[in-house]
Amino acid sequence: MVIIRRALEEDKIILANFYRDYWFWNNTKVDHEYMIILDKKKLLGFSEIKNFNNFIAEIINIYVNEDVRNQGLGDGLLRASMNYIEKNGSEWVVIQQNEALENFLFKKGLQLLKDIKVPPSIREYLKEYNNSTTLLCNIPLFFQKGCKNKKSMG
């Protein structure tokens, strides 16, 4: 049975050992949270989350093992990550665009910063991000409407 859940401390060791040779892996961080996909005890994927404050968080990595892609696990992982972020008080999530995730994230309704009227309450937190390569989503709207076709979220 496949489950998606927040990684426990002992899971972080498994996570680090499993992905240590992958280009995107940079060891687990104390101030980051991880969501994992497990089938029994086999690791199928993960996301890495950095919470900034009660307004906004960043999903730094989303990865599903190549041999189990196109089975809805990426969608489940994204939704579980956003649910976790929202339950911990943030309404917004940013994700740095990358080629591998670009189509997936656009299909899920995330939009580039340059295409969104950013609310004043989070502008300060977004200054360091590139407007042309950073995706933003209002989490309650994501769950309500999938973020699609929203030009103004404030």
UniProtKB/TrEMBL annotation:
Residues 2-132 form the N-acetyltransferase domain. It holds the Pfam family Acetyltransf_1. CDD domains: NAT_SF (cd04301). GO terms for molecular function: acyltransferase activity, transferring groups other than amino-acyl groups. Keywords: Transferase. PROSITE patterns: GNAT (PS51186). InterPro entries: Acyl_CoA_acyltransferase, GNAT_dom. This is Acetyltransferase (GNAT) domain-containing protein. It comes from Natronincola ferrireducens.
